């Protein structure tokens, strides 16, 4: 009589059906009784429906008993179960792919539609990347909600190898999605992405929906002249320091009491309070690095709890603006320098920093930071920055950081 040889078997088990408490326990207890080794496991729940996948290693003398008991248990639980044998060479090939780079693609907007997802996943497939997981970061969507308040975010975890040229090609593809009303972040999923510690913000047209110097100019009766210089500077047509000096000179003689009135009526950008509440809760350091003025930056610091403020100090004599400023101008070069200094002071790697801004003078810090986000930015800035948000408020930054509504609310 020939003795039967015991062989190693790899089996993928897929279970689907209505979710019930204790289901995973009852299924894995059967595997435990037969000393099956779990190679991989994953579970997802959508609208009270469960999808569970388990990849096991067992032996040929036990596999039949395992599948038989699992079939009976699945029938008892009212779920579907399917078994797929996996060849050892296919398993080893799959394991070999685990060493490839992992990337995170974040789809963010008022709504994320089927068309958005279809276009994004097509770009992923065209570049030879494989989707490992998809998860929703925003809360469950109600059927009826005002567009202004709506937020939808889906995160894709993908794996593969990309050259610099291929990464650039993917970014170009994602720019097309921005034309469809969707913001897309494409980041390498490395240790630094999971350990951001410092976020630096521009102030005017980022934290607040105005340029404070324009507000001051209106009170001084030189609004049109100042706005023309401001627009030219934000488009990168003239040097920021030159434009700043010219604009401040036009404010000569304005009473300082005007600044308090403007501060108390600043139009705050959507999502600022929620963003700051959560960033502080999870331990981020926050800074305002602004080409605007310290008076208004300090007002926001007191109101929302920013840790640092660096901006420009207006000179005052006899209760009126002199048309001059004190100290070094906080321009694009200075913002990048301050970002680097803050990282040193906080003892963090520059890759752990985030910078957010809208103008050309923000580009140096956006390009230096580990994560640079152009926020409702000018076209030139949006085209240059690696990431951008144009569809929702400042709290959209939380999703680019990988934070999930159900864990932070």
Instruction: Give the C-alpha Rg.
Output: 27 Å
Low-confidence segments:
none
The average pLDDT score comes to 91
Distance between the termini: 67 Å
Helix and strand arrangement:
Layout: E1 8-18, H1 23-33, E2 37-46, E3 49-59, H2 60-77, E4 80-86, H3 88-96, E5 102-109, H4 114-126, E6 130-136, E7 152-159, H5 164-178, E8 183-188, E9 198-201, H6 212-220, H7 223-234, H8 240-249, H9 257-263, H10 272-281, E10 285-293, H11 294-304, E11 308-317, E12 320-326, H12 332-345, E13 353-357, H13 363-368, E14 371-375, H14 379-384, E15 387-389, H15 396-400, H16 405-408
Parallel strand pairs: 9-10, 9-13, 10-11, 13-14, 14-15
Antiparallel strand pairs: 1-3, 1-4, 2-3, 5-7, 5-8, 6-7, 11-12
Helix pairs in contact: 1-2, 4-5, 6-7, 7-8
């Amino acid at each position: 009589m020939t003795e039967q040889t015991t062989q190693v078997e790899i089996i993928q088990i897929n279970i689907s059906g209505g979710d019930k408490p204790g289901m995973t326990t009852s299924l894995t207890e059967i595997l435990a009784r037969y000393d099956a080794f779990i190679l991989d496991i994953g579970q997802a729940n959508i609208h009270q429906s469960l999808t569970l996948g388990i990849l096991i290693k067992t032996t040929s003398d036990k596999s039949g008993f395992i599948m038989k008991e699992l079939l009976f248990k699945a029938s008892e639980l009212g779920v579907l179960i399917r078994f797929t044998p996996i060849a050892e060479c296919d398993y080893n090939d799959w394991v070999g792919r685990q060493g490839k780079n992992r990337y995170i693609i974040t789809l963010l907007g008022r709504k994320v539609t089927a068309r958005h997802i279809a276009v994004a996943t097509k770009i992923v497939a065209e570049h030879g990347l494989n989707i490992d997981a998809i998860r929703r970061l925003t809360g469950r969507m109600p059927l009826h909600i005002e567009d202004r308040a709506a937020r939808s975010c889906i995160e894709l975890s993908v794996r593969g190898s990309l050259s610099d040229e291929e990464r650039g090609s993917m970014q170009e593809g994602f720019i097309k999605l921005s034309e469809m009303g969707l913001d897309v972040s494409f980041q390498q999923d490395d240790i630094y992405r999971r350990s951001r510690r410092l976020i630096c913000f521009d102030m005017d047209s980022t934290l607040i929906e105005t340029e404070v110097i324009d507000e001051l100019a209106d009170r001084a009766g030189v609004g049109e002249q100042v706005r023309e210089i401001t627009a030219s500077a934000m488009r990168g047509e003239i040097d920021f320091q030159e434009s700043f000096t010219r604009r401040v000179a036009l404010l000569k003689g304005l009473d300082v009491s005007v600044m308090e009135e403007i501060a108390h009526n600043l139009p705050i950008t959507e999502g600022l309070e929620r963003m700051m509440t959560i960033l502080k809760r999870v331990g981020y350091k926050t800074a305002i690095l602004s080409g605007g003025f310290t008076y208004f930056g300090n007002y926001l610091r007191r109101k929302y709890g920013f840790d640092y403020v660096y901006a420009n100090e207006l000179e005052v004599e006899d209760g009126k603006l002199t048309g001059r400023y004190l100290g070094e101008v906080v321009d694009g070069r200075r913002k990048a320098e301050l970002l680097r200094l803050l990282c040193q002071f906080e003892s963090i790697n520059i890759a752990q920093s985030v910078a957010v801004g809208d103008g050309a003078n923000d580009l140096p810090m956006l390009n230096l930071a580990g994560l640079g986000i152009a926020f409702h930015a000018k076209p030139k800035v949006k085209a240059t920055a690696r990431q951008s948000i144009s569809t929702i408020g400042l709290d959209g930054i939380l999703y680019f950081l990988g934070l999930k509504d159900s864990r932070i609310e």
